[in-house]
Amino acid sequence: MSLETFLDIRLGDPAISVSLNYNGLAFGTMMGRLVYYNFSTQQERVINELSEEYIPGVWLSSDNTLYASIGDAKVLIVSSLHCEKVRKHYFLHDKPHTSANCQNTQVQMSQDSVCLFSVEPDYGLEIEIPHSTSPVFVAKLSLQATKRVEGVRFPPYSMPFDFDEERLLWMEWQAEGNRVLNILKISGNAMTSPIAVFPKQYGKVSFARLLNDIVVFVHNFRKIKVLDIVSGEEKFGVGVHKSDVVALKVVRFVSIAECSNLDSQMNMNTNIRTDSSRNLLLSADLKGYICIWDADNAFELAEVIHIPSLVELTKEYRKKQYFGMGYPYVINCCGPRIAISTDYGVLVIKSRFLESIGVVHS
């Protein structure tokens, strides 16, 4: 493995979303800074220095169109990233945008799909109020299509974990300490179903991610486990980090070997057979270890990368702690490259394993 580039961030303005393709990388920050980096020219381009809201999701498509969610207000769509002047236009969400709504609205993004929903505010136990439902808004940006799902309630202390365009995974914290993991199916007749109940004594549950008919999650900060969606039972443990997990990502790839009709812009094949998909799991921990797990091969540990041991780092940066600020760190990959946000910036690392299997991000 090797460090390809290190993109700086401003102090106190962490990168909270990142996406990459074969051409470049884009990331968005808590204060609404949007940056694009070109791998070929090694040039960094600031698309937005500041935005009205934070940028919880970005997606860089294979045709080099950049989609960036600006809070719950709108999505910035940027094209012509390699031209002197980029083209920008906005997609406005079909929902009221007030200060009260904004405070309680959660945003999830999966590629060019954005899901918005509101969590009931916590008024305190001394005030009795009727429980309310609020619409779930889903937008498919490439099609300029929207969907509105009615009748779903998200009680106080509800938190989204993952969204895969068709399903929303979220957890409700109950007063007695139990936690209920729920799944909302967006497609067809939308409905919410509880998957599993974790009692208080079970310990901490975090980083739950959807992967086909299972959920991958972190138990007590370090143990990565697999949960069956249908039965709600734990299937097996994936592995254990030696320090607390700070980022987890499920990534689906397609094999280069199954491609045809070379795409001139990506130098990769875009006519891809659907049976060539491959699922990987990326995880990173507090001490700077990144693990690649082969989800299609019983979650076998395929590669371990230690950030402070990267030879391209200066002696000063090898001594740094990269995940000490408690930011919402993110990790992603495309082809041979892994991108991960840290306290100091976004690192782009080339993986031997990803390069050896020959994959394109789907």
Walkthrough of the structure:
By secondary structure, the chain is mostly beta strands. The protein has three helices and 31 strands. The strands form eight sheets. Strands 27-26-25-22-31 form a five-stranded antiparallel sheet. A four-stranded antiparallel sheet has the order 1-30-29-28. A four-stranded antiparallel sheet has the order 2-3-4-5, with no helix packed on it. The two termini are about 25 Å apart. Residues about 125-130 and about 255-275 have low confidence and may be disordered.
Question: Which secondary-structure class do the elements indicate?
Answer: mainly beta
Fraction in beta strands: over 45%
Bulk shape: globular
The main sheet orders its strands as 27-26-25-22-31
Evaluate the radius of gyration. Answer: 20 Å
Helical content (DSSP H or I, runs of 4+): under 10%
Number of strands: 31
- Pick out the low-confidence regions: 125-129, 257-275
N-to-C span: 23 Å
Biggest pleated sheet: 5 strands, antiparallel
Number of helices: 3
Mean pLDDT: 88
Task: Record the SSE blueprint.
Blueprint: E1 2-8, E2 15-20, E3 24-29, E4 34-38, E5 43-48, E6 57-60, E7 66-70, E8 74-79, E9 87-92, H1 99-104, E10 105-110, E11 113-118, E12 136-140, E13 145-149, E14 158-163, E15 167-173, E16 179-185, E17 191-198, E18 205-211, E19 214-219, E20 223-228, E21 234-240, E22 245-255, E23 259-263, E24 268-272, E25 277-285, E26 289-294, E27 300-306, H2 315-318, E28 331-334, E29 337-341, E30 345-350, H3 352-357, E31 359-361
Antiparallel strand pairs: 1-30, 2-3, 3-4, 4-5, 6-7, 7-8, 8-9, 10-11, 11-12, 12-13, 14-15, 15-16, 16-17, 18-19, 19-20, 20-21, 22-25, 22-31, 23-24, 25-26, 26-27, 28-29, 29-30
